[in-house]
Amino acid sequence: MTEELLGRAKALYQQSKREYAELRPALAARTSGPLTELFSERAAVEEVNSVGNDLILSIGLLLTSSRAQAEFTSAL
Questions:
Q1: Tens of pLDDT along the chain (76 residues)?
Q2: Rounded distance, CA 16 to CA 54, Å?
Q3: What do you get for the CA distance between the two ends of the chain, in Å?
Q4: Among residues 62, 57, 66, which one has the least CA distance to residue 76?
Q5: Using an 8 Å Cβ cutoff, are 16 and 68 in contact?
Q6: Global confidence as pTM
Q7: Distance CA 5, CA 3 (A)
Q8: How many CB atoms lie within 10 A of CB 62?
Q9: Which of 6, 47, 54, 61 is the most exposed place for a label (fewest CB within 10 A)?
Q10: Is the dihedral of CA 10, 49, 18, 28 positive or negative?
């Protein structure tokens, strides 16, 4: 783990959260049945509790995805 990788993961995480926040209402409106919970708003405590997992996912994407690597190479 390097500071550079952590900074790139942070940038990827922040961009992903912004994009999802914009898309979530439309996704929720188009979903019905048991899948509606996938797009429901999370409580603040749920958001805080998910940060670690989301950051690990971002690091994994940067280590394995050529698309994420290309987009977030100079994110700092």
A1: 899 999 999 999 999 999 999 999 999 999 999 888 888 888 999 999 999 999 999 999 999 999 999 988 764 4
A2: 10
A3: 15
A4: 62
A5: no
A6: 0.79
A7: 6
A8: 20
A9: 47
A10: positive
10 Å CB burial of residue 72 (0-12, 13-18, 19+) is buried
Which amino acid would we find at residue 25?
A: P
For residue 47, give the nearest of 71, 75, 24, 27 by alpha carbon: 24
Alpha helices in the chain (DSSP H): 3-29, 44-64, 66-71
Taking phi over 0 as left and psi of -120 to 50 as alpha, with beta for the rest, 33 belongs to left
Question: How buried is residue 19: exposed, middle or buried, by Cβ count under 10 Å (0-12/13-18/19+)?
Answer: exposed
